[in-house]
Queue: 2 jobs
Job 1
Amino acid sequence: MKTAVVTGATSGIGNYVLKSLLREGYKVFAGYRDIKHKKELMILSDDVIPFRIDMTKKWTIEDAIKTISSSCEKIDVLVNAAGKVVAGPLETLSVDKVREQFEVNAFSHFELAQGLFDKLDGGKIINISSMASYGVFPFLAPYCASKRTLDMMFNSLRIETGTKVQIISVKPGVIATPLWEKSIDINKDNFGAGKYKIVGDYLVANAIRNSNSGLSPKTVANKVMEIIKAKNPKNSYTIGLDAFCVEMLSRLPQCIIDRIVEEQLRKKVAAQLDKVLLTGVVQKTVEPEKEESAEVEEDTVVENSENPDERLEAALQEAMAEENS
Ligand SMILES: NC(=O)c1ccc[n+]([C@@H]2O[C@H](COP(=O)([O-])OP(=O)(O)OC[C@H]3O[C@@H](n4cnc5c(N)ncnc54)[C@H](OP(=O)(O)O)[C@@H]3O)[C@@H](O)[C@H]2O)c1
């Protein structure tokens, strides 16, 4: 019988992955943070072995490594799905909250993988990263940076250790899971009542929209199962058109990315909320970039249109043409 370990198994993507693995006949060590979920996991199947892990508490990670290691000879796949979203304006956001974001989304996964690495010899580590790893979402910088860190650490681990363990990053776009609703509560105090409030309100509306309009977590679980079965999977997979577009966007020069992202943000927030207030917030960050990108303006298609959507489209086409050439 094959063995898998899944963190974040109690909800969303991790829960779908857990159920898909059970259907394929795996024995699954399923990570839960809150004891209230243990029973739900146990009644799924006799092949589920729930284990407690809180990604912010080192001792629970160490305990999980001991429990799992002593209960199996070999692990075929580790799926790191636990995660949360910390958002806020970097000017005022508590560094402790940023630190916790890195613990939950990056360091803890690395620590767990290190502890189980020998058992994973010949197996796979699949990290549920995000399109945020491409790093183009203002006010979501802690989330983006934590996902980028996750990818960078595991990319290096892959290169350093060769073929011992196959390490794969899965980067979904927006997926309709409870992650977004939870993010509203987690970040409710981060924007304050001042100049950033309007952006916080926009992000709340956006989180609600994401909860309803994202792809199904089943799409991600299916891709994970495809990767598990593949003999030679790629190192990285994006899931969804939004993730693909963000990947292409991330390949443009930074000054162009900045301008597109600023315009998109301004347009989206303005469309939803108060245009006057928003201009006050975002204008401040746009001004210094103008000089730097003046040179680019002359010869890029991106700069020819006043419409941010057209500019984004043009920039993506240019990036794709470059990619294909
Ligand atoms: N939803 C999206 O649009 C999207 C897109 C790209 C990537 N992702 C990534 O996909 C992964 C799964 O997210 P999801 O969308 O399925 O969200 P979700 O439904 O909220 O699931 C997140 C899981 O992580 C667990 N978790 C959170 N904090 C934890 C902690 N400190 N210790 C241990 N477990 C913890 C949660 O447990 P509790 O419920 O007990 O907190 C839950 O089981 C995350 O890494 C997320 O960043 C999501």
Job 2
Amino acid sequence: MEQRSLVILGISGSLRKQSSNTRLLSFVGGMMPAGMEFRMYQGLADLPHFSPDLDGDEGQLHGAVREWREELRAANAIVICTPEYARGVPGSLKNALDWVVSSSEFMNMPTAVISASPHPDGGAAVLQSLTLTLKMMSAVIPDEASLAVPFVSKMIGPDGNVTDTNTLSSLLNLVQALSQAIKGH
Ligand SMILES: Cc1cc2nc3c(=O)[nH]c(=O)nc-3n(C[C@H](O)[C@H](O)[C@H](O)COP(=O)(O)O)c2cc1C
């Protein structure tokens, strides 16, 4: 019998067309081993502003929220790659996460988190803040699946490939740690 691929959902925290985080995420998607299908979540900008008043019966939910939850439920693991905005999580990404606190899609979900920034600390503050939020939602984040990428503009070539050997090796470790977490799940 044919085995179904495992689904890895990529979520970029940047809505910018030329986003370095989205490009880095696509590159990571291309590193997934055989048997893993990488999909990119495209609906971040379509989600309404979260309000507990709107978060009730599934049948009454905004269509974009239903689709967001369905894409998460169809995933075996998640990779989030995000910029740091004013030392925190970009509002659109935090909004998306707030929509799934009550519905618990991140519960026990193997999750990798990457922050990428042109600055030397690679967005260490957003990585910390995002990790706190995801752990509050009981996501499983292996140590090696958490990575801050500094000087990101120099790390990605015009073809979208990462050439820096240290970053490449950290990304390989991240993909391996995520694969292990899926097996242990
Ligand atoms: C509103 C705003 C706030 C920012 N705040 C930070 C910050 O706190 N730390 C940081 O490292 N970079 C910060 N940056 C710079 C971003 O890291 C940089 O623009 C990055 O390229 C954005 O990611 P993207 O290319 O994926 O869109 C900020 C950028 C914007 C637009």
